[in-house]
Structure formats: C-alpha cells, structure tokens
Amino acid sequence: MKILAINSTKGGVGKTATAVNIAYLATLNKLKVLLWDMDIQSSATFYFRIESKLKGNPEDIFKEGKFIYKNVKKSNYDNLDIIPSDFSYKDLDIIINETKKVKKKFTSLLENLEDEYDLVVFDCPASFNLISEYILKVSDFLLVPIIPTTLSIRAYEILIKYINENIKSNIMTYAFFTMVDYRKKMHKKIAEEFPKSNKLCLKSTIPYSSTIERMGEYRAPVATFSSGSKADKALKNLWFEIKNLLNI
Ligand SMILES: Nc1ncnc2c1ncn2[C@@H]1O[C@H](COP(=O)(O)OP(=O)(O)O)[C@@H](O)[C@H]1O
Ligand SMILES: [Mg+2]
Which helix (H) or strand (E) holds 195? Predict the structure, then answer.
C-alpha cells in the first residue's frame, strides 16, 4: 500500500481537485483506493456526494483504528472508498498535541488498512499544521500543486525548506503546476522554466480549465463526465507520472 499526500500551505490551488481525480484515475488501473478527506471544508467529501459527518470523535483516530472502520464510506465508484471530513477536525491539532506516540499510532492504524487498499490519498487542508506534519511522516509521496506565480513558488520553497530541515522521512516530494493560464506570459514562462532547474517538479501540468471547475456542478471526477477533454488528458498524464514514481 502506498500513501500519497496532497498538500500546500496555500488554499485554492487545486489540492482537492487533484486528490479527487487522482483517486478516481487510480481505480481505473485496478487499484483499490481510499481517499481520506482531512480538510474541515470537506470539499472532497462533497465531490463524492458523501455526507460530511463523522461517527465518533476525532480523538478516536488514534485509538486502535476504531474510528477508521466506522467512517469508511463507499463512493459511487468501484474500488474507491472515502473517509469524509467534518468540522470537528478543527480540533485535530489540539488532540494530536495531547496524544502520546502519534506517529506510531498513526502508522499502525494505516498498517491495518494494508490488506484492503493499494493506495491511500490524503486531501490535506491549506496551511501547515501538526496533522499535515504527521501525514508527511507516514506518507510515501508528497504532491504539491503550484500556480505559476512568484508567491506560489515562494510558498512552495518555504515548505520544502521546512520539510528538509525538520521532518525525518523518506517521502518523495514533487511539485506540479496547476491552473496554468497559457495566455499569461508569466504563467507560461514559470511553467516552462521552473521544471528545467528543479528536478523535483513533474512534467505534467494542469491547465486552467472550466471543465475542472465544473466538478462542483457534476460532483464527480473529470473522467466521468468529460473523458477525452484537455483537462482529462492532463490529469491522466499527471496520474501516470505519479504512478510510475510510486511504482504501483
Ligand atoms: N485546473 C483548474 N482550473 C480551473 N479551476 C480549478 C482548477 N483546479 C481547481 N479549480 C477550482 O479552483 C477552486 C479551488 O480548487 P480546490 O481543488 O478546492 O483547491 P484547494 O483544495 O487547494 O483549496 C475550486 O473552485 C476548483 O473548482
Ligand atoms: Mg481542498
């Protein structure tokens, strides 16, 4: 089982859109996937038409996996389950702060899922807090969406510097450009130049796309309502790049 975390300190950069589409595309490759929505906004939960309501308390997460099994929901798609989020996750950092041996407990909880899933996708909240940090400690791959602007690149570099200096983990970390508006000189220049000087940037880019915005209307992954579109092809390229790196 591989664990993919989608994270950025910035909000509104396409983390959830990526998590939802990658999770779905992985199932088309016959992988069994669990998407765990960690954001109080519960957008991934919404996209999969699941109620944003958790059974039990977030503190149960670290108690023998009980919380997990009560909260795994079937999506409308084969081989794709969701752990929804709700507003009670607002207290998750306090809970983690008061819990002993969080990493060990989190690791063993995820080990319990190993027989059932090939891939776990974490849709993380914006910003960087204790839960984001623990997710990185237990994940194999961190994917960071960046909009091609100066401040987004800066935010990405600050995040990577923090991870390199503070988080002991063998996590593979890759950025990719999203919401790229090729009519904008700056977007085009950054999206073309940055990957040349940064080996940890994926080649696939996701364009600014009204198809992706329409996920909110369809409440479904792009491939289910716009197969063959530019956005669909770009998302599939992104997934194949990640799949190869994860070796799954
Ligand atoms: N490639 C894209 N092109 C256009 N709009 C996008 C794209 N990706 C996401 N969006 C839209 O931008 C908004 C924020 O995306 P979302 O995935 O929720 O970001 P995050 O999870 O990082 O906050 C949503 O309204 C979404 O529909
Ligand atoms: Mg989100």
Answer: helix 185-197
Tens of pLDDT along 36-62? 999 999 999 999 999 999 998 888 888
Residue bearing tokens 């940064």: 198
Task: Count Cα neighbours of 164 within 13 Å in the Cβ-side half-sphere.
Answer: 8
Predicted TM-score (pTM) above 0.90: yes
**Ligand 1 proximity of 17 Cβ (cutoff 6 Å):** yes
Answer whether 179 contacts ligand 1 (Cβ < 6 A): yes
CA–CA distance, 147 with 152 (Å, rounded to integer) = 6
How many CB atoms are located within 10 Å of the residue 248 CB? 15
- Does any ligand 1 atom lie closer than 6 A to the CB of residue 103? no
Residue of 13, 127, 205 to test ligand 1 pocket, by largest number of atoms within 8 Å of CB: 13
What the block records as the tokens of 142 is: 């961190």
Q: What is the mean pLDDT of residues 203-213?
A: 97
Q: Which CATH architecture has domain 2-246?
A: 3-Layer(aba) Sandwich (3.40)
Ligand 2 centroid – CA 144 distance (Å): 12
- CB distance 98 to ligand 1 below 6 Å: no
pLDDT, tens digit (0-9, with 9 covering 90-100), for 162-178: 999 998 888 999 999 99
Atom of ligand 1 nearest to the CA of 210: 4
Sign of CA dihedral 170, 90, 46, 117: positive
